[in-house]
Specification:
DCTN6; cytoplasm; 171 residues; dynein complex binding; globular; mainly beta
Length: 171
């Protein structure tokens, strides 16, 4: 974490010290931020709800105009190397390895952006949209992705054994 950051962490959030958090960032309960992940509140604050998983080399950046807050819902997974600048993110979404979501895109609930896929248009991804394949095909899934609560629980137990964690302010 960087010195200029104004970070608010939930007591049970697991944030590795090797992660880079800049600007005004709020991290919700049960969220895990892996080493080398970046959360950049460049143009405005970022508020992340509970039980999100931000994996290694993932970059979440607020590029909203006029200092607007980037809201991120709960139960989202930002896989290795994903780059997400979405204006707003709902609940239970999966951002695949090395995918890119631009700042004019709004992601609702239950969406999946596949490996190396992108969503860069000024658009709202409707619920349960899946973007996949070399041709960036999209369709609507019949059900949202499964919530990865078991993986988060495991990471909350294991990461402290191998990494230093960010210190939380005393109440």
């Amino acid at each position: 974490m960087t010195a200029e950051a104004q970070i608010t962490l939930a007591p049970d959030a697991v944030i590795c010290t090797e992660a880079v958090l800049t600007g005004t960032v709020t991290i919700g309960a049960g969220t895990v931020v892996h080493p080398a992940a970046e959360i950049r509140a460049t143009n405005g604050p970022i508020i992340m709800a509970e039980n999100n998983n931000v994996e290694e080399l993932a970059v979440i950046e607020n590029l909203n105009p006029d200092g607007e807050t980037m809201f991120i819902g709960r139960d989202n997974v930002f896989e290795v190397g994903s780059k997400v600048q979405a204006a707003r993110i709902g609940n239970n979404n999966v951002f695949g390895v090395r995918c890119f979501v631009g700042p004019q895109t709004t992601v609702t609930n239950g969406c999946s952006v596949g490996v190396k896929c992108s969503a860069v248009m000024k658009e709202v991804l409707s619920e349960n949209v899946v973007i996949y394949g070399e041709t960036q095909t999209s369709r609507t899934a019949s059900e949202p992705p499964l919530i990865q609560s078991g993986q988060l629980e495991y990471l909350r137990k294991v990461l402290p054994s191998f990494h230093y964690l960010a210190q939380r302010a005393s109440p």
